[in-house]
Amino acid sequence: MPRIALALAAATSALALTACGAVDGIGGSGDSATAAKGDDITVGLLLPDKDTARFETFDHPIFEKEVASLTHGKGKVVYANADANPATQSRQFRRMVDRKVDIVLVDAVDARAVEPEVRRAKDAGIPVIAYDRLARGPIDAYVSHDNELVGEVQGRAIMTALGSKAETSDIVMMNGDPADPNTAWFKEGAMEEFRNRVRIAKAYDTAKWSPAAAESNMRKAIRTVGLKNIAAVYSANDGMAGAVIDALKEAGATRIPPVTGQDANLDAVQRVVSGEQYMTVYKSFLDEATQAAQMAVYKVQGKDIQYDALTRDEVDGSGGRKIPATLVPVVSLTRDNIKDTVVADGVYSVREICTPKYAADCAAIGLE
């Protein structure tokens, strides 16, 4: 059975073993934090938004499944999604600290805004692990990807698509949310590929990674640069890529220029199949969420050897601190490797990807 399909199937039984209920968007119940505990632990999980499909569909259930597995069904996960609102996430974080969870994993909506809550947790003796995005404050560890490499992979894809025409080409950059520290790394990685090799006609930062804002900015770029003059669009994630493509179609584009993405959302994979989206960066949700759950459980249980084995990397945190980290590899997903990536890993089945709308395109690339 494919890896993520197996994880999600097990997640159903795992959820039955975790506490239920919700208060202010938080599910589960808390136990008092201690220096080291057995299986009866409570882990707080704070995710940033629902627009990014992977968080609700994969990260959350996989994380819960692994916590349940590691704790013989006794571990509880208190979960909250901030729906892209920093104030909501801060309130959710405070409630977890007040309920005395044993550890918190936070994927910050705003890295700076969440810092007071990170410090509050530390003052209460509750460790904090940054998940996917590096939050500010006294973080104990970090689980993510080499985010500069993500940008490099995206930028390299555009340069490959443009080939010898790159130096005379105009591209538009649709960057992510400046409140997300990953945005700067994505941008820097892409610029390593673009610098002095292609013209950046327009560049935009996109608050809260909003597809609506990206679509609006793309319309502006089309008016300023001219539809026929846009040779490619660097889009930092899939949600914005879909919006960019919608704006190009609305403007009358008969051929969509190369557009990048990230996250391997199902609709983005289908756009890659059809040729509307040039590529997306696939990051293994299974590996990231599973390793995050392992780090959290081992940290609370005082299993230093296992914990240290998962944190052999390090990244620069706020104040120049080195933060132990695990960085999961990334893959450039194109029409050529869909079967070997998201299908092989069980993220999506061929049937899910190749709906009637995409059947002909799937057949053309041998995805049947």
Record keyword descriptors for this entry:
14 helices; alpha/beta; three-stranded parallel sheet; seven-stranded mixed sheet; globular; 368 residues; single chain; 14 strands
What are the SSEs and their pairings?
Elements: H1 3-17, E1 22-23, E2 26-27, E3 42-47, H2 53-70, E4 76-81, H3 86-98, E5 103-106, H4 115-123, E6 128-131, E7 141-145, H5 147-162, E8 170-174, H6 181-194, E9 199-204, H7 211-225, E10 230-235, H8 238-250, H9 266-274, E11 280-283, H10 285-301, H11 304-310, E12 313-316, E13 322-328, E14 330-333, H12 339-343, H13 350-353, H14 359-364
Parallel strand pairs: 3-4, 3-5, 5-6, 6-7, 7-13, 8-9, 8-10
Antiparallel strand pairs: 1-2, 11-14, 12-13
Helix pairs in contact: 1-2, 2-10, 3-4, 5-6, 7-8, 10-11
Description:
The protein has helices at 3-17, 53-70, 86-98, 115-123, 147-162, 181-194, 211-225, 238-250, 266-274, 285-301, 304-310, 339-343, 350-353, 359-364; strands spanning 22-23, 26-27, 42-47, 76-81, 103-106, 128-131, 141-145, 170-174, 199-204, 230-235, 280-283, 313-316, 322-328, 330-333. It is of the alpha/beta class and 368 residues long. The strands form four sheets. It has a seven-stranded mixed β-sheet with strand order 4-3-5-6-7-13-12, sandwiched between helices. Strands 9-8-10 form a three-stranded parallel β-sheet, sandwiched between helices. It has a two-stranded antiparallel sheet with strand order 1-2. The longest helix is centred in the first third of the chain and has 18 residues, at 53-70. The chain starts with a helix and ends with a helix.
